[in-house]
Amino acid sequence: MPFIPHTDTDVREMLAAIGADSIETLFDEIPAALRVDGLNAIPPAVGEMEITRLMEARAAQDVMGLNFIGAGAYEHHIPAAVWQIVTRGEFYSAYTPYQAEASQGTLQVIYEYQSMMAGLTGLPISNASLYDGASALSEAVLMAVRANRRSKSQRVLMPLTVHPAYRSVTRSIVASQGIEIVDVPFDPATGRVDPAALAVFAGEDITALVIPQPNFFGVLEEVDALTDWAHANGAQAIGVVNPVSLALLTPPGQWGQQGVDMVVGDGQPLGAPLSSGGPYFGFLCCRKEHVRQMPGRIVGRTVDADGRPGFVLTLQAREQHIRRSKATSNICTNQGLVVTAATIHMALLGPEGLERVAGACVEGCGSLVARLRARGFEIPFTDERFHEFVLRVGVDGEALLARMAAAGVLGGHALGGDYPELSDAILVCVTETKTAADLDRYVAVLEQARADLAG
Amino acid sequence: MLIFERSRPGRRTPSQAPAGRADVAALPERFRRRRPAPLPEVSELDVVRHYTRLSQKNFSIDTHFYPLGSCTMKYNPRVCNSLAMLPGFLRRHPHAPESVSQGFLSCMFELQEMLKDVTGMQAVSLTPMAGAQGEFAGVAMIHAYHKARGDEGRTEILVPDAAHGTNPATATMCGYAVREIPTDASGDVDMEALKAAVGPATAGIMLTNPSTLGVFERRIHEIAQVVHDAGGLLYYDGANLNAILGKVRPGDMGFDVIHMNLHKTFSTPHGGGGPGAGAVGVSERLKPFLPIPVVGREGDRYRWLTERDLPQSIGRLSAFAGNAGVLLRAYVYMRLLGREGMPRVADYSTLNANYVMARLRSLGYDLAFPERRATHEFIVTLRRQAKAQGVTAMDVAKRLLDYGFHAPTTYFPLLVPECLLIEPTETESKETLDAYVEAMAKILEEAASEPETVKGAPHTQPNRRFDEVRAARELDVAWQPEAG
């Protein structure tokens, strides 16, 4: 029996100790009418060899080719040491560190993670993780509503330059709590939040403003002005950032005069493989005064009965297992193992390594933009960007990408579904993983695919 | 020692990052960080040794018996990990076209089908990323269902007092008021109280069966009838599905929506707190509201079903499609066990729980529900010892660490005083259970003969008990460059 160690003798002795005739007897409290008689859709058991062969065949079916898709999930080099350590059984098969004395490894990792995120974002408090960047934004919106006691409107301004899936998830999650999510359009010339569109709301009761950096189009927003606008209008400022970009860009804690109130993002670029969309992790950092509104676990450093330092889960009175219906969130399980990967990843790269990664992204992206411009392609919006750009292709984006995929290049993400005005545009990402030869191949495959479609 | 304290200016691991600094002149000064991020500067060996040593300070399933009630800490088969981490799966971008995603999508489709079968539900969405998000999805679907029928007056969710904290927290997140239903003396839902509570305001009830009290809710059929008659729906919290896998199906019990903790029942790792996966299953009437995306099949092709296919969906819960890597692990696990392996999980987890319960009872431990069968877990109460010797459930839990066993769940459920919730799982051998019982016997003796030893435990761990009040009062949640 797979993973069940019992011998017949064991079962006999155990039943004797219980005083039961058979294992079946142990289910005698379940009404007989409810019992199921066999399962049909689940295939019979297979061995490790057979399942290995099957999974290898399926994995081999999905040949990715050269990947230029970003749109919230980014291909980076992950040092070999990261997942070799992460999948050690002591990390992999441990539970939530509720018994602190038996969980110092996990607890210290989370403390170090919180410290690294505080350093990257410039905000002093980080939680131990949320599910992903999108759910982290939803939690930040709920948190801002709790934290902004002067605002009665529960209106949150959400620029259309925020990742469309993040906006959609936030709507799903805050829908039944009476919170109004208001779209803020972008300037079609720059691809940034339109200051005139924002000005319409000046003087109104606004609970929070969401500020993406870089935004979904890869463009750098005028974050100082946006943060100051939020605070001048009594709104909380919520940053949404790419953590790798923070090795080069101003930390959100220093945006504008006061810095943002809270910042979220997806931690995937810090050591999590693309892996079909997960597991990744969401991070959430905030100013000190908002700590009691923070959802999720937080690790604190303290001392034990002998005065030795160590780590525990702290401020648990915010959480569902203590506060139940009055908790700051229902979150329990988070993304601990992926946070462990991120911590090791950041430690291996260090400040300079992470900066080199971010720099190579900026340079590579600029380099592809230059190549495409030289071939006559239109790249709308400002050139002030991180590692993604919008490319007008003059034909239907979806159709073009299908052609490119057939030629072994995943050319980007089609924008028409979320932005009908950009249905002839795609979002292209270049990370440090792409060489000059890769960029040349991209241009060649793109031109061929476009010519095929046009012809 | 913290990784930051191992840092030395100028030390680095050059092969991990691009060679040389890039030209970032295109990036205007006003967007630039003025000082480098305060990350540690360490060598690769420093990192490997530091985190390997930290790992050794953990208890884990791979190193210790971990009978944590309601958490199902069973063995996580290694092959599930290695196959989910095949390069083809790791490299797949979530937005990769369906033409190059058929291998992955076929696994997800089959996982949906297997979960439908084992739960008796009509459709499954894999997107929720943990149990609590599955709960959210479930209650949001109940909300959407009533709204779609124009039945707007339902403002309450009923939750038994024994429920996990996530249940009431979820109901609140979905905009509902929570009404608690008491438990009767034998551990079942108090039927009279339930009947008095249901009415036109009832949107639904959230139930775990077996309940967190470690017993099967015998009148589940009657509960379903009472709630349905009042127009409410039944939500099944799948935290304890391990106990009934392949024996009874929530769909057959009358539940309208369930979430499954794949990181419990289907043995994906807990990873020190996550990631999990909280797939949801629904009855026919809730199908239109499932969270998206869902994997569909047309002929021999698989594709994502989105808003276009499910216009009444409660929407997206993750930026992509949930914790795909976790779902792949669960898929491999279910294939390895097969249809015949499902009821065996219930058989042997129940056998192990009843065995440990019988042995502890004969040692003199008090059971919370001595007249009931254990399911996959059971509750011991130390109320007597706490009164007589001042030895609490927490003390026993900490003393177990000294004997090399992870503690059971303590002080949950909240309605049993000084309780230990013990869940051995099916993957533990009789020898391990016997050794655990022996440790529990020694602790019982110590509680009488040398209570201070128990109260002062643990004695053999890297740390003794922590000052948790100080942790909360003098909040230190991040290393400070100045102070370090």
Q: What name does the CATH topology of the largest domain in chain A carry?
A: Aspartate Aminotransferase, domain 2
Q: Which strand order does the major sheet of chain A show?
A: 2-8-7-6-5-3-4
Task: Give the overall shape of chain B.
Answer: globular
Number of strands of chain A: 14
As a percent range, the share of strand residues of chain A is 5-15%
CATH class of the largest domain in chain B: Alpha Beta
Helix content of chain B: 25-40%
Subunit structure (chain A): The glycine cleavage system is composed of four proteins: P, T, L and H. In this organism, the P 'protein' is a heterodimer of two subunits.
Keywords (chain A): Oxidoreductase
Domain Glycine cleavage system P-protein N-terminal (chain A): 3-445
Organism (chain A): Ectothiorhodospira magna
Please characterize this protein's 3D structure.
The complex is a heterodimer of chains A (455) and B (484). In chain A, helix 5 runs parallel beside helix 11 and helix 11 packs across helix 13. In chain A, strand 3, helix 7 and strand 4 form a beta-alpha-beta unit. With 455 residues, chain A is α/β, with parallel strands linked by helices. Chain A has two domains: 113 residues, Aspartate Aminotransferase, domain 1 (Alpha-Beta Complex); 264 residues, Aspartate Aminotransferase, domain 2. In chain A, the strands form four sheets. In chain A, strands 2-8-7-6-5-3-4 form a seven-stranded mixed sheet, sandwiched between helices. A three-stranded antiparallel sheet of chain A has the order 11-14-13, covered by helices on one side. A two-stranded parallel sheet of chain A has the order 1-12. The radius of gyration of chain A is 25 Å and the shape is globular. In chain A, 37% of the residues lie in helices and 13% in strands. By secondary structure, chain B is of the alpha/beta class. Chain B has two domains: 259 residues, Type I PLP-dependent aspartate aminotransferase-like (Major domain) (Aspartate Aminotransferase, domain 2, 3-Layer(aba) Sandwich); 127 residues, Aspartate Aminotransferase, domain 1 (Alpha-Beta Complex). Chain B is built from 15 helices and 13 strands. In chain B, helix 9 links the parallel strand 5 and strand 6. The longest helix of chain B has 40 residues. At the A-B interface, helix 1, helix 2, helix 3, helix 4 and helix 5 of A face helix 1, helix 2, helix 3, helix 4 and helix 5 of B. Chain B: It catalyses: N(6)-[(R)-lipoyl]-L-lysyl-[glycine-cleavage complex H protein] + glycine + H(+) = N(6)-[(R)-S(8)-aminomethyldihydrolipoyl]-L-lysyl-[glycine-cleavage complex H protein] + CO2. Chain B: Its EC number is 1.4.4.2.
